[in-house]
Here is the input.
Amino acid sequence: MQRKAHIDPEMPLIDLHRHLDGAIRLETVIELALRNGIALPAGDVEGLRPFVVIEGKGSGLMDFIGRFRYLTAILTDLDACRRVAYENVEDAAREGIDYVELRFSPWFMAEPNGLAPEGVVEAVADGIIAGERDFGVRAQIIGILSRTYDIETCHHELDALLAHRDHLVALDLAGDEEKFPARLFRDHFRRAREAGLEVTVHAGEVEGPRSVWEAIRELGARRIGHGIHSLQDPALVDYLVEHRIGLEVAITSNIHTGAVDDYAAHPIAEILGQGIVANLNTDDPAISGIDLRHEYEVVAPQAGLTQVQVRQAQANALEMAFLTDREKAVLLSNRKSTGTN
Here is the structure.
């Protein structure tokens, strides 16, 4: 019988690495495509699923990213952007999540239908605020720069994000890690830090430790998206442990991007065993076909985590969250007072 782990009901359930546009309901994709005359490879959810959801080991990061095209094609106007943001929060509530950080690239969402990136940021913020109000889930927004475009486009993308800086908690860098190293985006992240934003960067997912070092030294990252190849450099491991730089780990996603062969081969158990602060996340639940509970309860044991490590990952998520100490204390107190998920 497959071993199952248990989420600690007295600890908040937190997702820190969740792409908003990678968490769009397939039902919503079908509905908006039909309404707006957008061609899809199938006209029903089950028919569309194989074109979006990955099963088993994926063929690479860029193939994974390519599957977004069906999710973003239906963002034909700002109302659609507002709707999918709102539904993201609703879905987090249904999963029993207490706190979620939703990230998105306004340029990536705007490009398929020629929307204004600044308008996308405003619409997403409106949807998330409404979702918080209606579903009681605390949600914060992380803006993404899509490195796969180019340096200048990312400056324009950052302009769109900073125009609504009050709605953001952090800035991220995502996309083709190999061809667009972090050092190319020093100026962008200097601007973000000067605006008071936290920094988390996709690194060490496809590339090795150098990518993680650059994210920290060149961009000022306090958290790393994925970072699973950090173990290749003992000095980096020591640095991460000493400075409490957290790794936002997404086990299933790492298999679906082809970064890891299977659950048993995933380094998460060693990452936690080395004392690195790391938590579990969904990344892109629509593409991976999972939710956060699945990662903790089903996937974590398959990746070799003990029940103690599962709880540690939960505790790490609270430590890593871009919240004040007081806000963290409130989350913890609220969860302990209910004692149930």
